[in-house]
Amino acid sequence: KPQCRKCAKALQELENIDDEADQLGIGFVKIHDEALAEEYNLGGLPALVYYRHQTPIIYEGELQREEDVLEWLVQNKSTGDEDDVIEDVTPKTLATLITNIDNLVVLFYDHGNDDSMTVLEELEQIDDDCDKHGIQFVKIDDAKTAEEFGIDTIPAIVYFEKQIPNIYDGDLMDEEQILQWLISQLEHDEIEDVTDEMLDKMVKEGRVLAVLFYDNNDEKSERVLEELENIDDECDQLGVTFVKIDNPEEALEYGITKVPKLIYFEKGIPTIYEGNLEDEEKLLKWLEEQINSDQIEDVTDEMLDLIIEKMPHVAVLFYDKDQKKSQKILAELENIDDECDANDIAFVKIDDDTEAKEWGIDDIPAMVLFERGIPHVYDGDLMKEDELLGWLVHQKRYSEIPEVTDEMKDKLVENTEHLAIIFYDKDDKQDIRILNELENIDDELEKEGIVIVRIDNAAEAREYGLDHLPSLIYYENKIPALYEGDLMNEDEVLEWLILQKKTATIEEVTDEILTNLINDHEYVVCFFTGACEPGEKCDRTLIALETIDDELDETGIIFVTTEDTAVAKKYNIKIYPQLVFFRNRDPLIFTGDLEDEDEVLAWITDEETLEIPGRIEEVNAKMLDKILAENEHVVVFFCKSIKSKVHIFLSLNVNSLNTLLDDEGDKKSLKILNELENIDDECEEKSIDFIKTSDDDIEKEYDLPGLPALAFYRHKFRTIYHGDLMKEEEILEWVIELYESTADVIESVDRKTLQVLINDVEHLAVFFYDDKCDSCSSILEELENIDDDTDKHGIQFVKSNDVKLAHEIGIFAFPALVYYETGVPIMYDGNLKNENRVLQWLINQKNDECFYVGLGHDGRAAKREYKPFQCCPTKLEKSTKVPKLTAQRIGFSDNDDDHVKKRASSNFKFNSAETKTSTPHHTTTKKPSVHKPNTSKHRKPVVNIDSDEDDDDDKDNDDDDDKSDEDDDDDVPLIKVSYAKHKVPVKKASKQEDFKSNIKTKPSQPAAAAPAITAKKLHIKEKKDEKFNIKSGTFDFSKYIVW
To answer: Residues 378, 345: contact at Cβ < 8 Å?
Structure first.
């Protein structure tokens, strides 16, 4: 850029290599256009960009070292001469390409992952073909960028057409299929499918969007989609990007409970279309009206919350449409709407008194700017729109600690993970000086992800027990900690806040804060120190107790400390220090050795300590998970949040409830709870744990039909009670019956339980079925016969009719059987009607033992680029022709005497693959919606042929137990996908044992739920004279190896 010394100096040095660049055939030019540099995301100037096949590559080194620059150019030129190389790009370059190139294909990969490199090798073959069709192909190795686009599994391919992303969901090893898919994207206009992350990204970028929320399995959605495809081109002409998304959770965020539904976004502001979606002409006309409208958008309270959450800067006018003052101000503010757009500030208005009061706004009209969810209240004259615009732009550009109301503070505590609040008096000069000092650390706190606000409210400060102002309280996940240091020392404050965020510490609280915590939380441990100076015994004990804070956090137990004594006196505590455990507000004093932190931890987490005799304990979600994992029989009462009222309720009769509660759900839950208390003792006699929980979002997390609800758990398996919850005798009878019954059927599991089982159970078989499926019930009946057998072999067998869950993990045809081994899924691809064969297949999966043989070439030692071949011993039931192998075929020559040394010399790579969903009949725009397991980062699936022996009991031609010849799959061999983890070869005592060193090891870490791998969808590609593949069966290699 002009008048830039650094630019001039760099340019002077680069002149020295201009001739060499010419000799290389590289055109060297310069340009001083800052707007263009900004458009290309170049960052600070000067910048050097090398364009290779239209792909920009930014030089990251020192521009004044011309020799390094020339070497970099030579290196890029030499690799660029290879026409079949897919260009590697940086995140910045990728953003530029997406913005400027209409048809772009991006391979997200990991250069340290063998699967990625194999896929890359295949895709290099279609790079030229993509160029011929005007499609630019690049690759990027950046996990954060992949995450931004909602890509959970790498490698992955995303096609961008005019900036709209579309994930490829087919076989990444079939480059021809990928090419055909890309060409079809060029030739056919269709509404693109996006992930929730992609949608959020486009909304935040302020694009003009029409988003159809739909269900891929819903007939009405399909009809609507078919109609709307007709106006896709017209939307393009209007400048509206039309996309679709099949994601119920994302739809719920926008208040959509029934699909299909369309939302129009402009500058991040959503507007719901209420018309008939099957009338595409009316919809198109409505979209035109939205584009041409130049008014400040009116939003609902739900939409406002969503905009504040998703948009970085939102200006909100709280007004009353029937108030003359509001109307007058609104007319003035319409004049600055475009200027706000130009400064990337979303401007909306809302006519909702209740929403205004929630933010502590009593006087309407009022203006609030939300910066990343943090409110800034404007206290100027709203009639002076220019002053308001200046204030909005200033707040956006310059960081200041925002002033909040007490209602705003409460909302921030509820929704902000890391929050610092300064309580001060704006009329006190000392407070203002301290506030000015703390302004210096605002930017550092923002980088650390800590929000800081200020509040001038003495009454609110007193509620926290703050007698002296200014004071600082830090909240982490709603748990407060009081700062006791010098607020004038901003460096010390910054250090303390960062320490609070990054380390597990026992929070310092006041009496008032402690009282609130005891009332609001089920389990609170407080260390009462009394007056305690650094270095004293109480201080040393506190430091020792810090070591168990993490373990208590994991079980949902809050650990705090206080020097205040008012609460201690209330519970007759006179000797300090003292440790007290409040269980649902019921105190229990620790009588052991406070200096033995292990003894303290064991006492707090002991089941007898946690239980309150004669009462149904209230537990939080973390503690519920722990109890279900550790106890055989548990009854759980799920209800709305009533914990802050229970201690009052215990002293009231039922008739007094109406004066205490105004929520019908609360009344019902407390009445039921009163009845259930009558059967708690009977359950306790049977060693059945009876607990209740009312955490936020518990209904969604545990996939409940509604609240209140009662469930019986046996070994984590749930049965929901469908009777009258007010009849405790019937409930007790139901509980005892389930307790005494023997589980001789395949247990049905809900979403939450299945997730837990996949994570915790090493060998798990899951039968997915649909209630609408005609054959599912008869197949399930047959499979019930082998439930006991699977138990004997250590395989847990469950069933699930959650169709949406099945779709999420890649199952679209029912019924289906998936075997999980330490979280890794393998789909059964045989005939489910033959339960004996299913049982044998499951046993084979569990007892599977495999070993590796490296693949050589022309009698030489195995090469790194060749994948090792995994062999699994399988009994060949039928005659199978087996090709004879010599040592030369597998990588050793006849006279190679040092074979053992070569096997141990890391010539072979022991690989494994990430699981991938192969979705039947869907090779285009379906979002991968489930996190893939990461038990082993580089696992590669290997296909083995299983026995296809008929083991049915009838005499027909098929291999099931029915009399029909249908579904005969004798000609279709069972296929098994095995996963093996890297294991370093170990020298054995004898040569005969040498091959056993590579026996398959199981992944050691539990993995999250992952899409099942359909073996039939796995394609093993063969290359001539490169890879050896056995199609006819597996066998013992040792018979054919010549040592």
So the answer is: no
For residues 772 and 817, what is the distance between their CA atoms, to the nearest angstrom?
A: 17
pLDDT of residue 553: 84
Cα separation, 361 vs 800, in Å, equals 49
| Nearest CA-CA partner of 1027 in 865, 851, 859 | 865
**197-381 and 747-847 in the same fold:** yes
Residues 6 or more apart from 534 whose CB is under 8 A from it?
A: none
Specify the pLDDT at position 878: 42
Report the chain (1043 residues): mean pLDDT per 10 consecutive residues: 76 80 75 72 76 70 79 64 67 80 88 86 84 84 85 86 82 86 77 84 85 89 88 84 88 85 88 88 89 81 83 90 90 86 87 87 90 87 90 85 88 90 92 91 89 91 89 91 91 92 86 91 92 90 90 88 91 91 91 92 88 81 85 90 48 44 62 87 87 84 84 85 89 89 75 83 90 86 88 89 78 88 84 90 78 38 43 46 36 42 36 38 39 39 42 52 49 42 39 38 41 40 39 40 40
The H or E element that residue 87 is part of is: strand 87-88
How far apart CA 802 and CA 769 sit, in angstroms, is 8
The DSSP bridge partners found for residue 137 are 105
H or E, element range at 524 = strand 523-528
d(CA 531, CA 576): 9
| CA 742 centroid distance within chain | 38
Fold of 504-610: Glutaredoxin (3.40.30)
Residue 536 carries which DSSP code?
Answer: S
In the prediction, which pLDDT does 954 show? 53
CB 749 within 8 A of CB 799: yes
| Residues belonging to the chain | 1043
> For the domain bounded by 197-381, which CATH number is listed?
3.40.30.10
Compute the Cα dihedral for 630, 635, 637, 643 and give only its sign: negative
Between helix 5-14 and helix 66-80 the angle, nearest 10°, is 60
**856/864 Cα distance (integer angstroms):** 9
- The DSSP bridge partners found for residue 525 are 559, 581
CB within 8 A of 173, min separation 6: which ones? 118, 119, 122, 1019, 1021
Contact 770, 803 (CB under 8 A): yes
Give the burial class of 441: count Cβ atoms within 10 A of its Cβ; 0-12 exposed, 13-18 middle, 19 or more buried.
buried
Peptide linkage before 46 cis (omega within 30 of 0): yes
Closest CA to 834 of 1014, 956, 749: 956
Query: Could you count the other beta carbons within 10 Å of the beta carbon of residue 866?
Result: 19
HSE-CB at 176 with a 13 A cutoff on CA atoms is 2
* Gap between the Cα atoms of 474 and 267, Å rounded: 34
Question: Where do the structural domains in the chain lie, given as residue ranges?
Answer: 5-187, 197-381, 401-503, 504-610, 616-740, 747-847
SS3 content of the chain, % helix, strand, coil (to 5): 40, 20, 45
Contacts for 926 with CB less than 8 Å, ≥ 6 apart: 167, 169, 193, 216, 246, 919
> Token pair of 139, please?
């690759």
DSSP-based three-state secondary structure for 324: helix
Strand partners, 105: 137, 159
Helix (H, G, I), strand (E, B) or coil at 441: helix
DSSP notation for 270-308 = EEE--S-TT-HHHHHHHHHHHHH--SPEE--HHHHHHHH
Domain 616-740 sits in CATH 3.40.30.10 = yes
- Mapped onto helix, strand or coil, the DSSP state of residue 240 is coil
Please tell me the distance from the alpha carbon of residue 143 to that of residue 139, in angstroms, as a whole number: 12
Q: Enumerate the β-bridge partners of residue 528.
A: 562, 578
CATH fit for domain 5-187, picks 2.40.128.110, 1.10.340.30, 3.40.30.10, 1.20.120.160: 3.40.30.10
